[in-house]
Every structure is written in C-alpha cells, then in structure tokens.
Amino acid sequence: MKQKTPVSPTVLEGPRELAEAAAQSTAEVIDSAIRARGTCYWALAGGETPRGCYEVLAREPYRSRVSWERVRFFWSDERLVPLDDPASNYGMARAALLSRIEASDDHVFPLQDPARYTELLGRLPRNGGVFPRFDLIHLGMGEDGHTASLFPGDPALGEQRALVLRVRTSKPPPDRLTLTLPVLNAARQVVFLVQGAGKRDALARVLGGDASLPAGMVRPADGQLRFLVDRAAVAPN
Length: 237
Ligand code: 6PG
Known about the structure:
This protein is of the alpha/beta class. The chain has seven helices and nine strands; from the N terminus they run βαβααββααβββαβαβ. Helix 7 links the parallel strand 8 (189-194) and strand 9. Helix 1 crosses helix 2 (50-57) and helix 2 (50-57) packs parallel to helix 4 (89-98). The longest helix is centred in the first third of the chain and has 23 residues, at 15-37. The two termini are 24 Å apart. The model has no long low-confidence stretch (mean pLDDT 96). It binds 6-phosphogluconic acid. Residues 45-49, 77, 79, 89, 140-142, 146-149, 171 line the site of 6-phosphogluconic acid.
C-alpha cells in the first residue's frame, strides 16, 4: 500500500463550526491571493458539505469584506445534469453563494464541457510546469475515500496529462466531469471539508497517509494541504 506523510486535521465541534471555520479560512486565502496577484482562482467543491461554508460567505461580514469581483469561480467536479438540477454542484453554489454576492457571470465558469474547460484552465497561472495553479481548491470526500469525481479504482486516477476528464461513477448521478490529480496537486492550497461519522474510516486512512484512496493521493507538490473536519468524522482516540 502506498504511504504518504500523515496530515493533522483541524477539528471543529460540528457542522456549523466547520462552516464558520471554512468560511474564515476561505476569505483569508482569497484576500491573500488578491493582495499578492490581484486575482483569486478558486475551484469550489461539490456535494453537500461545502454548502454551509458557502452560505456563511454569502452573509456579513464576508459578503461585504471579500473583494468578490476579483475572484474567478471554477469547480473541482460536476455532475452532467442541467445547471438548475438539484444535483448540480454549480446550482448548489449559485443558490448558497453566487446569487447572494451577485458574482458576475463573466467570472463564474460552470464545468460543462471538458474541451472548453481545458481551454479556460489554460488561462490560469501555472505551477512552473504545464498545469494550471489554483489559489484554492475545495474538496469533499466520500465514505469510500473518493474526492472530486475521482473514485477508487478508476483509471482516471492515473491520468498525468489531461486537466479534465469525463467519468462514470458509482455515486449518482453517474455521468460527471472532474479535474485530474495533476491539477489538484498543482494548487497553492487544497482544503478538504469533511463531516459526519460515515466518513470516519476513510478519513482516518487518508490522514494517516494511505495513498491507495483517491483523497489520499491529493498532496499538492508545492502547496498547502488542509483538512477541516467535524468531531463526528474523527475516530475517538
Ligand atoms: C460530488 C463531490 C464529491 C463529494 C463527496 C462528499 O460532486 O459528489 O465532488 O466528491 O465531495 O461525495 O459529498 P458530501 O459532502 O455530500 O458528503
């Protein structure tokens, strides 16, 4: 089994505290990126866990404090459903955050077509190599250790060149698009948001350095890796 350096998580009491901490951390990263480079390139996560964080960011003080017009919004994965479908990751973020901060459509890039997204990602700053370097990538994690739409055993995990892949997954809806590991690992900062007892086993393995799980393969080569988790997701000592 492939083994990586263990990672220490930041443990929050519950989902509300996790959402608050994630919002604060996100606002800090955005502010820092804008101060340093004028723009923040942010790939949002899918699933339900990030919703709380995005709703906190849509309220004061963050609604007014963050220079949202300097942020460019992308997604780390997306389900191939209509943007207004309840299963859409874009739809969740629009309802929770984007519609409330009045983000310009020119700065929001739904993940709908691999070729178009590859071209868009080509405009991002690079990591010194060939890969686009996001300032921040949010990721969730499934109970099986999947992240984005990279699932255990999927050949997509071995992709070393493409930036975006179409995959068929065990978690419905099955038809999806996902950023690949080289893009995730080129980021300046990757933040996992994980909550709930159901994630406990996979989280313990990933935090312990088990790189046989997709979430355990995310280790930014030249960037920060953070896990913001709630107490229910952390195995009792
Ligand atoms: C997706 C996600 C996926 C998600 C995990 C956790 O589109 O489904 O990107 O990787 O983050 O499945 O989902 P929950 O946050 O809903 O538990």
